[in-house]
Design brief:
about 525 residues, alpha/beta
């Protein structure tokens, strides 16, 4: 996780001529190539319908991420016009939010659940026609139809339309068939070390949505601060924090943008802010020296405190995932953990038998916290260095491994987790960690390096794991950590992560080497953003 030691852009103004329905007839060999609408020779009877010039085959829309498949066709494509509107197909009324947003962005009408007419964009649910995030976007006869089996896929189709119009003023004729390569695609933000306003976070959610990113990790508790209002334990909350009302607003916006918020309260380490209000629960070694940020997990009061916080916040966040942390527990980073922390060693043996050790106690802690969040409908995640080999106790198989480093205690090669059949999410700190102030040899990652070198299979360092494990790698997230929070302003952070987010979005949506050079990709991003 953190390397502590070592809306959619709204209100786009688009000016375009009114769309017209144009009959397309290919001229026979040797015919003239007059423009559409020109009069034919008055002495020669004109065929019906009036012939127009032949359009060249269309090319794929220019978007970030790129579309997976485009079936070319001949025609003028679609442009937003004065009479254009967004409509929802009969029986697809749940797409109203997506329709209203698109209409607002393209500055065209929203007409609701009515039949489409010339110049319109129609949104439709098509059950059974692909995976939930897939969509089909068809452009012909001056109309657009975006369909998919789920609201998310249709929403992504609207992002493709919006970006294509921004990039080139037109959505090309033909059909797009599109779906993501990985199911989890996102951005992780540490608001514990550096505070970000609700407005700043909402701007990033809109940016993510245009890039078809669907997961926002929110690390809001650490040694430095605890950043969300608590009603069960107000004493742990830092002065500068998000209110629960603001969090509900963030979660609501994310949901409308088909982004899931993944909250994290890290434990049993990284709890310094909580422990300042509960010093009696702080872990101390045999000499009585406190271990910064670490809970004494042999004390029953530690589980009670953390579980009360988990119970409160699992109700605040409506998504399907919860991040339990589990990394960098200082007791396990001692040269001789059992000698340094005898109370933990005793507790491990009492609970798990004579062969158990402190790493078994820590693994049991992780499993117990997972058992707390599951009844709230949450699927648990934890950092890779919270999973240990050769123990008496093993981490539950349904806990997803978020692989960030191979440098920490307990960290293993990614293949070890994959051989165990575990599902993994890629947060490789070599490419995907934006650490403020660049401490401990970290360097701000660039979009170019991600675009040219990283893939979801590159979990550790620069080398990919064998392709046979690809199905277990669920995706990845680009992460911002605030180790030296004053190193950049929030505006600088937003600018610094702009191209890395776009590169990550491309690599998680479309497998393989990108078709565009980095220079062309960067120029396309600038064109799309400028039009917004």
């Amino acid at each position: 996780m953190s390397p502590s030691r070592g809306a959619l852009v709204t209100g786009a103004v688009l000016t375009a001529a009114a769309a017209a329905t144009i009959a397309v007839v290919v001229w026979p060999e040797g015919s003239g190539t007059g423009l559409a609408g020109e009069s034919s020779n008055p002495r020669t009877p004109a065929p019906a319908p009036s012939p127009t010039r032949s359009y060249p085959l269309s090319t794929a829309p220019r978007t970030i991420p790129a579309v997976r498949e485009h079936i070319a066709a001949r025609g003028p494509g679609w442009r937003p016009g004065e009479d254009s509107g967004v409509v929802v197909a009969h029986g697809s009324g749940t797409l109203g939010d997506e329709g209203q947003l698109l209409a607002k962005e393209l500055k065209i009408h929203y007409r609701g659940e009515v039949p489409a007419r010339a110049g319109d964009v129609e949104l439709a649910l098509a059950p059974g026609a692909g995976t939930p995030e897939s969509y089909t976007l068809d452009v012909h006869d001056g109309r657009v139809r975006i369909s998919g089996p789920d609201q998310a896929g249709v929403f992504y189709g609207t992002r493709t339309l919006k970006q294509s119009v921004r990039a080139d003023g037109v959505m090309p004729e033909g059909e797009v068939r599109d779906h993501p390569d990985r199911p989890q695609r996102g951005f992780n933000l540490d608001i514990a070390r550096k505070y970000y306003t609700a407005g700043w976070i909402e701007d990033r959610l809109r940016e993510m949505a245009d890039l078809k990113l669907n997961q926002f990790g929110l690390h809001f508790s650490d040694d430095q601060a605890f950043r969300i209002e608590s009603r069960t334990h107000p004493e742990v909350v830092s002065p500068q924090h998000l209110t629960q009302a603001e969090v509900r607003q963030i979660v609501s916006l994310a949901s409308r943008l088909h982004i899931e918020v993944v909250p994290e309260i890290d434990s049993p380490g990284h709890l310094g802010a909580v422990l300042r209000a509960h010093p009696g629960l702080q872990l101390r070694n045999a000499s009585g020296t406190p271990s910064p940020g670490s809970l004494d997990i042999s004390d029953p009061g530690s589980a009670k405190l953390v579980d009360e916080l988990l119970g409160e916040y699992t109700e605040l966040f409506s998504g399907a995932y919860w991040h339990l942390g589990a990394d960098e527990y200082l007791a396990l980073m001692a040269r001789d953990p059992a000698a340094s922390y005898p109370q933990l060693q005793r507790a491990a043996r009492q609970k798990y038998g004579a062969q158990a050790g402190i790493k078994d106690l820590a693994t049991g802690w992780l499993n117990d916290r997972a058992a707390v969040v599951r009844p709230h409908g949450k699927r648990p995640k934890a950092w890779n260095d919270g999973f240990f080999r050769d123990g008496t106790v093993h981490a539950d198989k349904d806990i997803e491994v978020e692989y960030w480093t191979g440098k920490e205690y307990g960290a293993r090669q990614p293949e070890e987790y994959l051989r165990e059949g575990r599902r993994v999410v890629n947060l490789n700190d070599e490419y995907l960690y934006y650490v403020l102030g660049q401490p401990n040899n970290f360097v701000y990652p660039t979009g170019e390096r991600i675009y040219q070198q990283w893939t979801p299979l590159v979990l550790r360092g620069t080398q990919p794991v064998p392709a046979r494990y690809s199905g277990q790698i669920l995706g990845g997230r680009f992460a911002v950590w605030g180790d030296l929070p004053q190193a950049q302003t929030t505006e600088q952070v937003a600018q610094g992560i702009r191209m890395p987010l776009r590169a990550v979005a491309q690599k998680l949506w479309v497998p393989g080497k990108p078709a565009l050079s980095w220079e062309r990709f960067r120029d396309l991003a600038a064109r799309i953003d400028k039009a917004g």
